[in-house]
Specification:
Radius of gyration: 18 Å
Mean pLDDT: 89
Low-confidence stretches: 247-251
Strand content: 25-35%
């Protein structure tokens, strides 16, 4: 079954300090699951761990993707199985155009060498779907890009790679309302019935466009509370104060 992620009792250390302290959650195919929480709660650590960043050491627990234990797989092996991470701060790649980057990424992930004509046809199709300007693809990746343009490049990459599971790590960070709407609409256009989405965010505003099936609140490396979209609306009004004082903490 594609797009199915299970995280079981995950403990993660960064530079000798335990950041994640027993995270257990599941994202089923077709679901959008949101992780919310203040800075320093462990949200981005979770995203990096799921993609296999070697700086994040798993000391206990398992990551199961589509029925396979991927806990010890490398980032490229995870990508080839259909995992995709949209970074909070995408890197600048000088001298590499968006087109060349996307073609190289697709060939690496899919394990095939798509010829230039076929790739250009695919790229044109996805650009039209996402309303991306033609001049965009000849620019160097993220060089001089606005925050919105960087996120648009990642959504285009997602459309080209066609992953079965997407991790959106604070995709709404630094975006104005118009850019946020463009990004959210792009995700909805690419999304399939089998694609699982883990949406990591501070704020409720992106959830107005991408309605989550489940919401988990993370604090100090643990899940503090779980609920549905109403929980996110509640957080927008009350913030995280009640969790910071140790109330309602569950594993």
């Amino acid at each position: 079954m594609k797009g199915h992620l299970q995280i079981k009792n995950l403990h993660v250390n960064v530079e000798g300090k335990e950041i994640l302290k027993g995270i257990t959650l599941e994202v089923k195919p077709g679901e959008i699951v949101a992780i919310m929480g203040p800075n320093g709660s462990g949200k981005s650590t979770l995203a990096n761990t799921l993609m296999g960043n070697p700086d994040y050491k798993i000391t206990q627990g398992n990551i199961i993707f589509n029925g396979e234990d991927i806990t010890n797989l490398s980032p490229d092996q995870r990508a080839k199985r259909g995992l995709f991470l949209s970074f909070q701060y995408p890197s600048v790649v000088e001298g590499v155009t968006v087109t060349n980057f996307l073609r190289t990424a697709r060939n690496a992930v899919k394990g095939e060498n798509m010829n230039v004509l076929d790739f250009n046809k695919l790229l044109k199709e996805k650009m039209e779907l996402l309303h991306v300007d033609k001049s965009f693809i000849n620019r160097y990746l993220n060089q001089g890009f606005s925050g919105g343009e960087k996120k648009k490049a990642e959504i285009l990459q997602m459309a080209i790679l066609q992953p079965s599971f997407v991790i959106l790590d604070e995709t709404d960070s630094g975006l104005d309302v118009d850019a946020l709407k463009v990004v959210a609409e792009g995700v909805k256009k690419i999304r399939t019935n089998n694609m699982g989405i883990l949406l990591i965010t501070h704020y409720n505003r992106i959830l107005d466009y991408l309605n989550p099936d489940k919401v988990h609140v993370m604090l100090n490396g643990k899940i503090a509370e779980s609920g549905n979209a109403e929980l996110a609306k509640e957080l927008e009004k009350s913030g995280y104060a009640k969790y910071k004082y140790g109330l309602n903490i569950v594993n």
